[in-house]
Amino acid sequence: MIQQQRQRVESAVTELIDDMDKTHLRKMQTDMHLCAAKCCQDGTSSVDSVQRCVDRCSAPMTRAQNYVQHELGEFQGRLQRCVMQCNDDVKVKMPANPNEDQIAKYTDQFERCAIQCVDKHVGLIPNLMKTMKSVLAKGPESIPQINKKMDQQKRRLEGAISDMIEDMYRSHLRRMQSIMHRCAASCCDDERGTLDSVQRCIEKCASPLMDAQDYLQNELGQFQSHLQGCVKECNSDARSKLPNNPNEHDLSRSRHLFEVCTGNCVDKHINLLPGLMKNIQKTLDRGVPKRSHLRDQKNIDA
User: Which family does it belong to (predicted)?
Assistant: First the structure.
């Protein structure tokens, strides 16, 4: 079911890219190559000047491709967040030690929620395509430049979180995973146990690792929510400083304020990661809270 939905999204995005290529990007690519060909026909210029000429020719196409890629990335990010919310909602409802019927029930709930996310976002693609075509049709100068600094900040944060998760896996989760498998193997060695009792034994073995993974996911989710809240405040502050009818200078200043503020948010939260990791490791050493406790805490926070 989930694979079918993934294929639906991939097919819809592929059709969008193909349509965008035929209606706008391919002509820009042709212009780029014709322009570059003229640069190369200049027999009097130096290698550097010809290369600069070729780079200027490719700039509009590069700008357009970056814009399309950015918009598609934002679209896919929103879809992923929607599906992640489905997953979080189901986890909150699921009991600590679900039986087969409960697992089937909540898996069905997750899949139906995920399908709704896909339906909603596939339905948004025509408007997304219309907007992008409108921007591209205005010419290269009207295409928004994707801020490389913002992308760098995003990659910095993703890299820091990935490093933290990797460290946590090496220091704690891998050992817990090994214990779980040895415990489950002992359950299966019990020749006197029934199928149900062996299954319950295996689920009991898996419970500490699942609690640890849920706890880690919960802490990272809160961390990312705090960061998103910080960035949202940056956006609100930057917008509040815009006049009623902003000119290009006003918009540029507002973007600069937002970018500086967002960079500060990322710096602040990256600096919080070592302390967060230390606290998580201490909790894992003491014994992680049960998933039922995490669900109760989420309900309180909500």
Answer: Belongs to the FAM136 family.
